UniProtKB/TrEMBL annotation, chain B:
Protein name stated in the entry: DUF3068 domain-containing protein
A Pfam short name: PorA
Biological classification of the source: Bacteria, Bacillati, Actinomycetota, Actinomycetes, Kitasatosporales
InterPro entries in the cross-refs: PorA
The organism's place on the tree of life at top rank: Bacteria
Length: 44, 330
């Protein structure tokens, strides 16, 4: 019984970690203020 | 004590073992996404190209034609479309700006490309366009999906506004990266005149009245890094002609542009460096973390079982019971 509880704890912690990272997500940020280029840039 | 330790190890083992598939099949599709605010530019050059002189309406050789392609993520538009699309969306406002050897504009074609941030599948929403014409894209454009496969893909061609297969041609090494080579041939096709023409007073409408039409063919090649799906090199053998009508003075056709367009060297280097960095991040989610946590989980499980077995083993022989001798009676 104690082994089952330990295994369930590990599983729940893994789920919690992944869901937390997912909830934080990738930051979308703001639209870049840089324009669409109509001149040839000297370098990248 | 040993039993407690084995239970803690078991919890850790299950934690690691569960993290492995969760990272690969849950976290990876949710975290590996094109950022909505991506801004990227690339310069392509066609040396010794042929370009139409609109003054004389004759084709002439020029030392170089430069194409500046910019992709700019529109975050506000992406958030708005996501509400109805119910998936992460990226909206790219793109501009292909073509410049002649004198620095003057030859053509500029804006695009709006809307797609799923992870799968790269097109998302259809108002505003999707090429040069102001509404389009409904099928297939991919500019970038391949993460974990690109060795197979043909459907690729959208902005000039013809159509989608056709881009064929997988093989794998090769390119500056320390394994890349998949893709090639698409667009046969001679009649295409619309660009809305922005290089000469003032000439518009697509005035050209249309002369009966002259624009035709285009291209062979485009991309070398794609398969983990990120990012092209690290691209080239096009591009031909454009004006055909028929009174504008050509009785000639059947005249070359409007012909050239072998290739990525500029400094942009190739920059792209390769960027892709090498991003590749590591994607591999962390698809390979390093899932494999590492699975191995660690199995190791911890083995340790837990060993500790549990030792905890159950008896420590030594039990002491013999002491019995008092009975009194002897006759």
């Amino acid at each position: 019984m104690r082994a089952l509880i330990a295994a369930a704890t590990g599983l729940l912690l893994a789920l919690a970690l992944v869901l937390t990272i997912d909830a934080l997500g990738t930051p979308s940020g703001r639209t870049s203020p840089k324009p669409l280029l109509t001149t040839v840039p000297a370098h990248p | 004590m040993r039993r407690t330790a084995s239970l803690v190890l078991l919890a850790c083992a299950v934690f690691c073992a569960a993290l492995s598939p969760l990272t690969r099949w849950y976290a990876f599709p949710h975290l590996a996404r094109i950022p909505a605010n991506q801004y990227q530019d690339v310069v392509l050059e066609a040396r010794n190209a042929t370009l139409l002189d609109y003054g004389t309406m004759r084709a002439k050789k020029v030392p170089q034609v430069t194409i500046v392609q910019t992709l700019k993520g529109d975050v506000a538009a992406a958030r708005k479309i996501e509400k109805t699309a119910h998936r992460p969306v990226v909206v790219w406002n793109a501009l292909s700006y073509v410049q002649g050897p004198d620095g003057k504009m030859v053509s500029e074609v804006p695009e709006r490309y809307i797609f799923d941030a992870h799968s790269q599948a097109p998302v259809h929403a108002t505003g999707e366009m090429v040069d102001g014409d509404p389009v409904r894209r099928a297939g991919i454009e500019f970038k391949w999906p993460f974990l690109t496969q060795k197979r043909d893909y459907e690729y959208f061609d902005a000039q013809t506004r159509t989608t056709s297969p881009i064929h997988y041609e093989g794998t090769r090494e390119f500056r320390g990266l394994k890349v998949y080579c893709f090639e698409q041939t667009v046969p001679w096709t009649r295409v619309p005149m660009p809305k922005s023409m290089p000469v003032k007073g000439i518009t697509p409408q005035t050209v249309a009245r002369t009966g002259t039409t624009r035709w285009y063919t291209t062979v485009r090649r991309f070398w794609v890094e398969p983990v990120t799906g990012a092209p690290v090199y691209g080239e096009e053998i591009h031909r454009e002609e004006l055909r028929g009508g009174t504008l050509l003075g009785g000639r059947a056709e005249v070359t409007a542009f012909a050239g072998d367009v290739k990525m500029r060297e400094d942009y190739v280097e920059h792209t390769v460096a960027l892709v090498k960095h991003n590749r590591t991040l994607v591999l962390a989610l698809t390979s390093y973390v899932p494999r590492g946590t699975l191995a660690l989980g199995l190791l911890l499980l083995a340790l837990s079982l060993v500790l549990e077995a030792r905890a159950r083993r008896p420590a030594g022989p039990a002491p013999a019971p002491t019995t008092r001798p009975r009194p002897v009676s006759a």
